[in-house]
Write a structure and sequence with these properties.
96 residues; 3 helices; 74% helix
């Protein structure tokens, strides 16, 4: 039962986070956010459909690695944007 709650919590958390990312186009990650919403919704649907077994044991595709790749893409994008913001702030700082 705990495993099911973890799956549900993770999938709904990803959907909520990706939805927030979709709204924050300032971060320039709109397409990444859409992929996150779709993969997390499919992960949640597959897990609920095949309960109490995991989707891979029921003959469906395991979407966990796709969701993991989504997290990697989001983290990389945040690091890129942070570095870009530092460069802009450094170049805009007045020299003494």
């Amino acid at each position: 039962m705990i495993v099911v709650l973890v799956y549900l919590g993770a999938a709904t958390g990803i959907i909520k986070g990706a939805d927030n990312l979709t709204l924050a186009l300032v971060f320039a990650i709109g397409p990444v956010a859409i992929i996150g919403v779709v993969s997390a919704a499919a992960l949640l649907a597959f897990n609920l459909y095949t309960f109490p077994y995991i989707p891979a044991d029921s003959g469906l595709v395991d979407l966990g690695p796709i969701t993991g790749l989504w997290w990697l893409a989001v983290i990389v994008q945040f690091f890129r944007l942070e570095r870009k913001a530092r460069v802009v702030a450094k170049s805009a700082a007045p020299s003494a």
